[in-house]
Amino acid sequence: MNHLLKVPLLASRAFSSSARQLRNKVPEAQKLFQADNGLPVHIKGGTGDVLLYRATMTLTIGGIFKSLFSLQEPATLSTGCSSPLCLRRRRRGQEELGSVYFTESLAQSNANV
């Protein structure tokens, strides 16, 4: 029970002004980020910021391509072909190979004559 009475005293000592003083680094950071050196703000922090920026851009562009590929994939799976020309022919009810379609259309036109 005695140790519970000491808690407020210990808490006040932990946050007292006689504890180790920290140096204010804000003015230095302001000088760094407000310097007119032609760099964008998100790169002015140094090598770590440049690496983080490039990794973010790589993942973003990769994610865009992945989402576009994923949007096309269901159409590829349902029709069995992957080229855009093949998909257009399938939508019109034509054969997958152009030469097969061409010979069939010739045969049909000759039969009609």
CATH topology of the largest domain: Cytochrome C Oxidase, Chain J
Number of domains: 2
Q: Assess the beta-strand content as a share of residues.
A: under 5%
Structural class: mainly alpha
Taking all residues together, what is the mean pLDDT?
A: 75
Q: Unreliable stretches, pLDDT < 50, 5 or more residues?
A: 95-99
Q: Give the H and E element order.
A: HHHHHH
The count of helical stretches stands at 6
Give the CATH class of the largest domain. Answer: Few Secondary Structures
- Tell me the helix content: 55-70%
Descriptive report:
It is a single chain. The chain is mainly alpha-helical and 113 residues long. It has two domains: 28-79, Irregular (Cytochrome C Oxidase, Chain J); 82-113, no CATH class. It is built from six helices and no strands. The longest helix has 33 residues, at 47-79. Residues 95-99 have low confidence and may be disordered. It is found in: Mitochondrion inner membrane. Its main location: mitochondrion.
What's the gist of this structure?
With 113 residues, the protein is mostly helical. The chain is built from 6 helices and no strands.
Observed structural traits:
about 110 residues; mainly alpha; Cytochrome C Oxidase, Chain J; 2 domains; oxidoreductase; oxidoreductase activity; mitochondrion inner membrane; Cytc_oxidase_su7a_met; transmembrane
